[in-house]
């Protein structure tokens, strides 16, 4: 039997994980909880740990990245309309 050690996720992977579940609306979260309750409990615990471990600078950076992404999306939509 081969044992595989835990590899710490990169900052980008953590950010993606955080963003994906943060964007889900309550109905989507409920569906996931019903479909896979044990996994969702682990995911929610992980999200809580991520939020708790973030300092203010990281939170601000994440918020700024989200704002930048939204602005780029809006600009690309405007460009397509023109």
- Strand residues, percent: under 5%
- Overall, the morphology is extended
**Helical stretch count?**
4
Estimated helix fraction: over 70%
The low-confidence parts are: none
User: Residue-averaged pLDDT, rounded?
Assistant: 78
- Our Rg estimate from Cα atoms comes to 17 Å
Indicate how many domains the architecture comprises: 1
Q: Can you count the beta strands?
A: 0
Largest sheet: none
Topology pattern, helix = H, strand = E: HHHH
Q: In terms of structural class, how would the helical and strand content be classed?
A: mainly alpha
Termini gap: 60 Å
Summarize the structure in words:
- 0% of the residues are buried.
- The chain has four helices and no strands.
- It is extended, with a radius of gyration of 17 Å.
- The protein has 82 residues and is mainly α.
- The protein is 79% helix and 0% strand.
- The longest helix is centred in the C-terminal third of the chain and has 26 residues, at 56-81.
- The N and C termini lie far apart (60 Å).
- Helix 2 packs across helix 3.
- It has one domain.
- The mean pLDDT is 78.
Task: Give the arrangement of secondary structure elements.
Layout: H1 11-22, H2 26-35, H3 37-53, H4 56-81
Key terms for this structure?
single chain; mainly alpha; 79% helix; FliG_C domain-containing protein
Give the structure's gist in a few sentences.
The protein has 82 residues and is mainly alpha-helical.
């Amino acid at each position: 039997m081969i044992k595989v050690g835990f590899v710490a996720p990169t900052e980008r992977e953590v950010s993606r994980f955080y963003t994906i579940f943060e964007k889900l609306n309550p109905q989507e979260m409920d569906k996931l909880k019903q479909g896979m309750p044990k996994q969702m409990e682990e995911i929610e615990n992980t999200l809580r740990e991520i939020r708790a471990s973030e300092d203010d600078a990281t939170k601000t950076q994440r918020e700024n990245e989200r704002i930048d992404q939204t602005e780029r999306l809006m600009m690309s939509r405007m460009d397509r309309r023109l």
